[in-house]
Amino acid sequence: MHSIAFYLLLLISLTAIAIPTTTTATTIGVTYSTPGSISGSVMISPDRIAAKVVSMKIPAVRLLDSNPAVIRAFAYTNVSLFLSVPNPLVPLLASNRSLAMRWVYRHVLPFYPRTKISIISVGNDAISYSPDVSPFLLRAMQNVHLSLTDLRIYKISVSTTFSFFNIVPTAFPPSSAQFQQPNGEVIIRPILQFLERTNSSFLINLFPYNMYRSSFSIPIGFALFEEFPFNFRDDLTTGVRYRNLFDMMVDAVISSMAVMGHENLPVIVAETGWPSSGIDAGEVDATLLYSEMFLKALLAHLRCGSGTPLRKEGVSEVYIFELVEKEAKQGIRNWGLLHHNMTSKYSFEFSDGGKGRRFIELLIGFFVEVVMLYLLM
């Protein structure tokens, strides 16, 4: 009887290990925008893009241009889509509710829920790219949200995307970070209130590569998640030790939201990555080697589910910029996971395919069989 009790206790322990805890790994997706062609002649079909995403086991895609043909291609794939309203449309959607409804009729209603749409970003980094657009952001977001509500679509959240460099002037120490003024009070605070009220998320484009390039005091290993003995920075105010630049930047965003009373809003990193080639020869760290090191380390860091020092659950979603690189030519940075001919650029797999989970399931299955055989003897 003692042996039976031992086996049953072991089985219960393994089952407990297999059940996810409250800390869950971040959803990791990619961004995609429709290029004109591949190699200057062959068009990329939306169905081919959707099939490639499914084959790579990528659970979420941010569509930077929200092409209706691409949205349609993801029907029944269970891939979650993050749609975007382009900056030039923001003032129009803000001033005319019927135009907001028309956008929803064109980009959401024909496809949802067959295509899984999770969030809509009204504008992308409007503060820097289109400063004259930013005063219209909140009204446009409200009109898109009301249009969805009128159609009884309640599970698609509405937000807007900011760029870290244009709203957080000082990232270190993270505990002292605040949104840049006057945009913090005039633009961001009312948007945070809207996000809180509608159970939406704060969206941020966050590139450690750009911060590393802007500061000589940041070592390359800190930006690439390398675990060297002196690869850390201490926030003396909170006593927190940061071992990578990504977490430090995320916590600077969380601290900035906390200053405005919204520290618990979910955060989605709408774009991040490391370029495999630079604009010119001066970008010596924009290499395929560093790009692969960053992406492999970032994926491993996010999958472990440890979060950041200020937010143990971490960011809810992260989107790697980008799925398919632009055509190789001088004067542009390349970020893609795939070459423009759709072949893989890196040696690692984007998805781990749930290997760790399957191992635990097989292990439990083995012990169940052992216990059953013992009981039948």
Strand content: 5-15%
- Order of strands, main sheet, comes to 1-2-3-4-5-6-9-10
> Would you count the extended β strands for me?
10
Shape call:
globular
Unreliable spans are 4-23, 37-41, 353-363
The overall pLDDT, averaged over residues, is: 85
Task: Name the assembly state.
Answer: single chain
Radius of gyration: 23 Å
Strand/helix succession = HEHEHEHHEHHEHHEHHEEHEHEH
Biggest β-sheet: count, sense, barrel? 8 strands, parallel, barrel
Query: Please, how many helices?
Result: 14
Secondary-structure-derived class: alpha/beta
Description:
Helix content is 40%, strand content 14%. It is built from 14 helices and ten strands. The strands form two sheets. It has an eight-stranded parallel β-barrel with strand order 1-2-3-4-5-6-9-10. It has a two-stranded antiparallel sheet with strand order 7-8. Strand 2, helix 3 and strand 3 (80-85) form a beta-alpha-beta unit. Helix 1 packs antiparallel against helix 14 (355-376) and helix 5 (97-107) packs across helix 7 (137-150). The longest helix is centred in the C-terminal third of the chain and has 22 residues, at 355-376. The radius of gyration is 23 Å and the shape is globular. Keywords: Glycosidase, Hydrolase, Membrane, Signal, Transmembrane, Transmembrane helix.
